Amino acid sequence: MNDKTALLARRERLLGKNMSTFYLDPVHLVKAEGVWLWDADGKRYLDCYNNVPHVGHCHPRVVEAICKQASMLNTHTRYLHEGILDYVEKLTATFHESLDTAILTCTGSEANDIALRMAQAVTGKTGVIATDRTYHGNTAAVSQLSTRMPPVGGYGGHVRHVPAPDGYRPLGGEPGEAFTNAWAQAIEEAIASLQASPHGFSALIIDPFFANEGFPELPDGFLKKAADLVRKAGGLLICDEVQPGFGRTGTHMWGHQRAGIVPDVVTLGKPMGNGHPIGGVVASSDTLNAFRKAFRYFNTFGGNPVSCAAASAVLDVLTDELLMENARVVGEYARDGLSRLAEKHDLIGNVRGSGLFFGAELVLDQKTREPATNLATTVINEMRQRGVLMGKLGIHQNATKIRPPMPFSQDNADLMLQTLDDVLAGL
Ligand SMILES: Cc1ncc(COP(=O)(O)O)c(C=O)c1O
Fold first, then answer.
1. How far is the CA of 43 from the centre of ligand 1 (A)?
2. Which of 320, 354, 370 is a domain's end point?
3. 326: closest CA among 33, 35, 44?
4. What's the CA-to-centroid distance between 308 and ligand 1, angstroms?
5. pLDDT in tens, 39-74
């Protein structure tokens, strides 16, 4: 039995069965720096997957900020501390002026849980609309939104799912206005259905980049129409920025800004602390005060001084190292490279994305666009064997998910593209 087999057996014994690992041959990582990871045998991997170490694995400024604050004081938000105030000031300065207050949490799931309750507090209703291929986290309330694994006992009746937008196979049959109208109509029907139920309509929750749904290409104004319907019906628009936030899409700090909408509530997580567990909810002071009035809320670890120091350092590095601009330039370069691979390999049906969140949808047939889901699994496993880590996602689980740390360079993109070319040629 080699070390990895023993480690897997120990993991299963101590952590239980059915705990997933990435890749058929799981990776045993021991250290990281920037965009690189090393396994226990000293093999180096290019990280094209992990968005949590947003400004690069083990960034020295984030590490130093954590160490410095941890050696001084770490406690909770019932004591006064400038750290959380300085951070929330810096964070909310990147949003529309109406979004000027925040609650800090430890995870994105908690942030979405709060967002749903904010909508309840403001509207007095509980009905929620989400897409049918989404994931917003793991609390009991938020799990009700996900269709990946139906909740034990079934859905609560207060959730309506609308089709996940798919620009490659658009509702309404064509990618422009008909698609926008068809999706808006689905929202309108879901609102009407909730309004006719005892739950009423409280909110539409979306990731404005629809990352888990496969980051579809959407027509201009696509979300504006839906947002208008939500407002007209008295509901709140919640934007989950756990994936597209903090400049990842290259053109805007936040996915909703890229989509041209202003949400009522924004939720944050993953990249916020570069791996240190911190999430958050940003809203107007009216919305936040309504929540605090309706729900007594305290989070022991959320917003502690060490988390705020980590998150603050992330924002500083993002600005000082011009990482959003890097995401735009390198993302464009890498997507162009992927499009060139599409001319060579029939398996690539559609290349899309923005900044350093992009990928290719793999299909068995360019005409019918039949998803090549199993081949996508083969591709990411072959990439892993050759030292490049990426994932797959989307409605049909056939889109490569390339979402590296933000300092990803053109040389890194070349290595990823060359390896992908070799893998596709060898299929
Ligand atoms: C869009 C989105 N929202 C929320 C979450 C949940 O975040 P966390 O795992 O920090 O609770 C995830 C996690 O993958 C996510 O992808």
1. 29
2. 320
3. 35
4. 19
5. 999 999 999 999 999 999 999 999 999 999 999 999
